[in-house]
Amino acid sequence: MRVVTLHLTNYRSWKECGLAFHPQLSIVIGENGSGKTNILDALYLASYGRTLRGRDEDAIRWGERESSVRAIFRSEGGAERAVQVTLGPEGKSMFLGGRRLEGRTELVGLFPLVLSSSDDLDIVRGDPERRRNFLDAVASLLYRGYLDTLREYKRTLRQRNRILLEMALGRGGSMVSALAAWTERLVVLGEALLRKRLRSLEELGPQLSEYYRELVGGGRCAVRYLSRVDVDVDDLRAALEKALAVSAVEERERGMTLVGPHRDDLALEVDGTDLRKFGSRGQARAAALALRLAEAKLVASRGEPPILAVDDAFSDLDDRRAERLLAQTTGFQTILTSAEEARTRELLAARAAHGRVFRIRENQVMEEVLA
Question: Do 258 and 251 touch, CB atoms closer than 8 A?
Fold first, then answer.
């Protein structure tokens, strides 16, 4: 899969912006605040039907009523499809080849994009929710219907938590049977999520280790799934039921569901050191990049290679690791951004890279070809 063109109208900092990407490598160079990240954000919107940062309505350019993003994607077989997303006073509308879409789940998986940004450090060092979101995003690319199951799980969780809160407040005496029904539904959905998460992680782990070693030149990076549910057994449904039963008294006291996929976490380790708490920023940055590269490789193993985008690609990387990052992008259409023009050109020259450079100056995009 690759993106052929991308056009932004009244999107964040851009009044108008159009780019025709190289099939292999495109570099967007500009100072911080010039709008390079907004270009990747728009591409994310076209691929997944939502913005990468904040609320959709916040992406409308200040002072404008409406914003639109249009992208043309081309498959490995040469078929082209156009996506247009419009944000306005009445909300969001999405079109695929002229057909209006009912929801963004219709887009997920059609135009796979793996996007790495500085925020990915939060996957390594941030809250557990950030790591759960990462794994859910990977699973949604690998398994059609995963997002629907996740959405239904969250709806069921809200209903169960309402009942538990009533019980904690002493008003849920007549809700025992309702709690049992919602618990049964939660177990069915939770087991489905756990199984696909664990399968995704099982495939992701070896790729993560390999890419980390290639980026850093050594070391072993591993990822573990952390849960109050015993996930090392075949019967995950029974394991989840048991964990919920063990926590039942505490849940009724606290008024919330304390066990399940919504409470789980991942541990990223380098040579046995837990990067959530220890390890250098350089190790965390390399691990975050390795996660995204592993995600891209995993998605490619299921079908077409995804588009690979890396924001501020060379930040926190010395020249050796930056060169290794460039080497690992082979096989993907790659879009990189950088605020370091001179350094970026030196790195590209050292690899004799072929592609296209887009320089942003004074809100204008100038294009040049790398021979």
Answer: yes
Q: What's the domain range around 62?
A: 1-112+305-371
Any domain includes 310: yes
pLDDT band at 139 (very low <50, low <70, confident <90, very high): very high
Spell 326-339 as b/e; 16+ CB within 10 A means b.
bebbeebbbbbbbb
Paired tokens of 155: 């709806």
Is 40 inside a domain boundary? yes
Model confidence pLDDT, tens digit, residues 237-248? 999 999 999 999
Q: How many domains does the chain have?
A: 1
Residue 15 lies in a domain: yes
Render 313-338 in DSSP notation, one character per residue.
TTTT--HHHHHHHHHHTTTS-EEEEE
**pLDDT score recorded for residue 350:** 86
Query: How far apart (Å, rounded) are the C-alpha atoms in residues 334 and 329?
Result: 7
Q: What pLDDT does 337 receive?
A: 97
N-term to C-term CA, the chain? 23
Query: Domain of 99: which CATH number?
Result: 3.40.50.300
68 within domain boundaries: yes
What is the pTM (predicted TM-score) of this model?
A: 0.91
* Residue whose pair of structure tokens reads 């708490």 in the numeric block: 277
CA separation, residue 124 to residues 174, 286, 350 (Å): 44, 10, 31
How far apart, in whole angstroms, are the C-alpha atoms of residue 307 and residue 212?
20
Q: Select from 12, 9, 40 the least CA-distant residue to 27.
A: 40
